[in-house]
Write a structure and sequence with these properties.
The protein has 18 helices and 19 strands. The protein has 596 residues and is an alpha/beta fold. It has two domains: 138 residues, no CATH class; 331 residues, Rossmann fold, CATH 3.40.50. It has an eleven-stranded mixed β-sheet with strand order 17-16-15-14-9-8-6-7-4-3-19, sandwiched between helices. Strands 1-2 form a two-stranded antiparallel ribbon. Helix 2 runs antiparallel to helix 4, helix 9 crosses helix 10 and helix 11 packs antiparallel against helix 15.
Length: 596
């Protein structure tokens, strides 16, 4: 099989720009339920109607200033007239006169069939004009910022769904393919549509190519501990000597951990092991009905706190280096604050990757979160639900995050899979992106209320977890804090706010690209860049203004920083685990293979 790399382009025109696929469910991992009827992206007309309905509700009682509206109307009429005249000129060319060519820079209309067909070209150009005008109207609405953001989101959903490229009758490229294949493309597209209906989601990659443990999540190791919430994986050393202090990775509980171990060439896990670290990784269980009532306290106590205890017991090391990715970073910081309140300081260092500790700026996800939404969730799947707590289904999260970037992660595949009959190419990152996980309702509701809505983690003493009042400033460890410059889930400026919440030595590093592609950036690919600044001014823009840009991956900077915290080099262990914690099964274990 051809090696599949994590990249922003994926090497195929069917593969979207993947700077921000879901914590994307990542990742930050909270999101609200998408607009009604949009859980099934195959129902295009219903999706458009639902988005338009939501937009209309949001706009009740709002207005656009007469001057702005007049300007937009004037510009629209002028441009529409020009497009009509240009279209007529193409239909009836005058000898010797220059025929205007359609401007179709949008990649949805890049195929030659659009420009070659005058009617299709006109429809596409008018669509782009209408879309631009609608978005400008949304931007002109007189309302407070959150309402404006919601209106813009609803309008964008409608605009993206209404594209003529999404429908067979108005897509000349798909029609031409149907003619040239004598209907075979339509037949194959229908088969793929029926297959996706059975699976319950739009296929973004050839899922048959991948197998967890064979060509993704394949770094060698063993499960050395498990409880009802997680398995602890210890990885086989790849060096003769290892740092005496072990390392523990805490991934987000709403994703499978193997985003950090896709393939050997782009595995952060393998890279850390190659640098001489004795690495343990927490692999969260995919919750089923038996775990639907588990709480945030349960996950903190039986998750990272228990994992830290086991790692210390196995390695006999009183301290360890720790890393949390996105929500995993929030969970890790919470656990360390609980331990600090108990008088324990097990972390020799803390690395936070695209993590929110201060939820003042949550990017696009902020438009979903308010008191009414949180209350609704608490009454349906939280501890206050009349029928008892429930599960937040993984597919709901996946669908919501896909609709944060619908052209790349929804309509791109509707057009390719069903209208053109093209099978999506194999891509490891998209396979992980579609490997959804459930979440117990009480955890989701608690996280929404206390983090996103009330932003209490940053306030010393405001939150009580596992019987302890939290103070992030009580964690006595150096911090390596990473943000991605184009991250729309955890804005880098929000990640930077963490430097003001923790004490001691802190290093902030900014990587290029988005939430996932910025983090998963192996040095061998020599892609992108990162910024460093030894000073930590109060504002993020001030930090960036005097930062130094470096070409390539931030990974070597991180492992260079870790050397001072790893301790002396000792002989690598020859066996996994210990007598008290023997091998239970080979990595990657059972938990990561459970489907939502």
């Amino acid at each position: 099989m051809t090696s599949l790399q994590v990249s922003e382009a994926g090497g195929n025109d069917r593969t979207p720009d993947l700077q921000h696929p879901r914590t994307d469910r990542d990742e930050a991992s909270v999101s609200a339920k998408p607009p009604p009827s949009m859980n099934d992206p195959l129902q295009g007309a219903q999706a458009m109607g639902a988005a338009m309905s939501e937009m209309w509700k949001s706009m009740q009682g709002l207005s656009v200033s007469p001057q702005s509206l007049s300007t937009l109307q004037s510009q629209y009429l002028s441009e529409a007239t020009r497009l009509w005249n240009d279209s007529l000129a193409r239909l009836n060319p005058v000898a010797g006169a220059k025929t205007p060519q359609p401007a179709l820079k949008d990649r949805r209309f890049a195929a030659g069939e659009w420009a070659a067909n005058p009617l299709a070209a006109y429809v596409a150009q008018m669509y782009l004009l209408n879309a631009r005008t609608l978005m400008e109207m949304a931007d002109s609405v007189q309302a407070e910022p959150k309402t404006k953001s919601r209106i813009r989101f609803a309008v964008q959903q409608w605009v993206d769904a209404a594209s003529p490229s999404n429908y067979l009758a108005t897509n000349p490229e798909a029609l031409q393919r149907a003619l040239s294949t004598r209907g075979e493309s339509l037949s194959k597209g229908m088969q793929q549509l029926l297959g996706d209906l059975r699976k319950g989601h739009v296929s973004q990659t050839d899922e048959s190519v991948f197998e967890i443990g064979r060509n993704v999540a394949s770094t060698e190791g063993a499960v050395v501990y498990e409880n009802e919430l997680f398995q602890l994986i210890e990885y086989k050393p790849l060096t003769a000597q290892v740092h005496e202090r072990p390392m523990l990775f805490v991934p987000p509980c709403i994703n499978k951990y193997y985003i950090m171990d896709l393939q050997p060439s782009n595995s952060l896990i393998r890279y850390a092991v190659e640098q001489g670290h004795r690495l343990f990784v927490l692999s969260w269980r995919n919750p089923d009905e038996s775990l639907k009532d588990r709480t945030w306290d349960d996950y903190i106590a039986q998750g990272p706190i228990r994992a830290i205890e086991v790692v210390r017991a196995i390695t006999k090391s009183p301290t360890l280096n720790t890393l949390g990715f996105c929500v995993g970073g929030t969970i890790l910081a919470t656990a360390l604050a609980v331990l600090a309140a108990r008088g324990e300081q097990p972390a020799q260092s803390v690395t936070l990757l695209t993590t929110l500790l201060d939820f003042s700026d949550t990017g696009i996800l902020d438009i979903f979160v308010d008191e009414s939404l949180v209350r609704m969730r608490e009454m349906t799947i939280g501890t206050e639900a009349p029928g008892g707590p429930g599960l937040l289904r993984g597919q709901e999260l996946a669908t919501t995050f896909s609709f944060l970037r619908p052209n790349d992660l929804v309509w791109n595949y509707v057009v390719g899979n069903y209208l053109k009959g093209e099978a999506p190419p194999p891509f490891d990152l998209l396979y992980w992106n579609g490997d959804a996980t459930n979440l117990p309702g009480p955890i989701y509701c608690w996280y929404l209320r206390h983090m996103y809505l009330q932003n209490e983690l940053k306030k010393p003493g405001a939150l009580t977890v596992c019987g302890q009042k939290l103070d992030l400033g009580a964690i006595k460890a150096p911090f390596y804090i990473y943000g991605s410059r184009e991250d729309h889930i955890v804005p880098w400026t929000a990640a930077y706010r963490s430097v003001r919440l923790v004490k001691g030595r802190r290093r902030f590093v900014l990587g290029a690209s988005g939430h996932i592609a910025g983090v998963i950036n192996p040095p061998a690919q020599r892609k992108r860049s990162y910024w460093t600044n030894e000073n930590l001014p109060s504002d993020s823009e001030g930090w960036l203004a005097s930062a130094t840009e470096h070409q390539g991956s931030w990974w070597p900077d991180w492992t260079g920083w870790l050397v001072a915290h790893g301790g002396a080099m000792v002989a690598a262990p020859k066996r996994y685990g210990s007598r008290a914690h023997p091998v239970l099964e080979p990595a990657p274990g059972r938990y990561v293979k459970a489907k939502a």
